[in-house]
Amino acid sequence: xxxxxxxxxxxxxxxxxxxxxxxxxxxxxxxxxxxxxxxxxxxxxxxxxxxxxxxxxxxxxxxxxxxxxxxxxxxxxxxxxxxxxxxxxxxxxxxxxxxxxxxxxxxxxxxxxxxxxxxxxxxxxxxxxxxxxxxxxxxxxxxxxxxxxxxxxxxxxxxxxxxxxxxxxxxxxxxxxxxxxxxxxxxxxxxxxxxxxxxxxxxxxxxxxxxxxxxxxxxxxxxxxxxxxxxxxxxxxxxxxxxxxxxxxxxxxxxxxxxxxxxxxxxxxxxxxxxxxxxxxxxxxxxxxxxxxxxxxxxxxxxxxxxxxxxxxxxxxxxxxxxxxxxxxxxxxxxxxx
Length: 338
What we know:
The protein is α/β, with parallel strands linked by helices. It folds into 2 domains: 45-135 and 263-334, D-Maltodextrin-Binding Protein, domain 2; 138-246, D-Maltodextrin-Binding Protein, domain 2, CATH 3.40.190.10. Helices cover 37% and strands 17% of the residues. The chain has helices spanning 7-12, 56-72, 90-95, 109-116, 152-162, 177-189, 201-209, 220-228, 276-290, 293-301, 313-334; strands at residues 45-49, 76-80, 102-107, 128-136, 138-143, 166-170, 193-197, 215-218, 232-238, 264-270. Strands 2-1-3-10-4 form a 5-stranded mixed β-sheet, sandwiched between helices. Belongs to the UPF0065 (bug) family.
């Protein structure tokens, strides 16, 4: 990758980092869900998930959905439709009834896709977040049996000496969070990295385990099972300063990279045409679910308790809008958009 990203842009990326003093941070108190508005819901809720089963988005939604279903007294049904970097499910969402019985689970690709002009979703116009309950930093992993390198330093030395372009398995390609972060790492490290998108999480894992790619881009919780089995080795935490649990893995500052990274986030979305009282009810239920023991256990299992904060609909919309402007600037400098 040869795109040059000026230093002002790198500073702008900082707005996407969440902190305790950041926008819309909620405290840990339990919010009691309101009475069901006009008997809603009276039947099962369908949630569209734009990635295959077993991946981070699927796990997140099923964990959150289990708690929401318990509070609401109805079942949650899940429809997984992967493809096009998470965009294949969007047309189905756009034509679904706007009665609050069909929701969309999606991550930051809603924002990056709008910035890059890759889909027809417009935040605040035809899609709004019900809640954003999960955020996380990412890591780069290598195959533990790859004899070319065993850590970030040796990987950079190998790439610089050979001039080889190292391929990176990720969930999304050009015009995505992954593409932006990998480009910044590539530029700052003086090596060539190429993102290879795999919509199905199993395909990403197979690619790195089969050594069809050199690196695997994902969040710590997604790589955890393979690290524990000795199959993958994390070599770089894509965060300014790694949490104590990952202090043994170099972060961006440890390897001399000065840009401010963005976090991945996962959200539950709805059409703004869903009646307001139903969206308010869903937000309150999501907030209560996010305070539940089951959800907190899930966050700890996936290490996302280290970064996650709860954003309600209004705060989440503002946060997503800030990210949108940041990514638009990023993509202009990458030549993806005019």
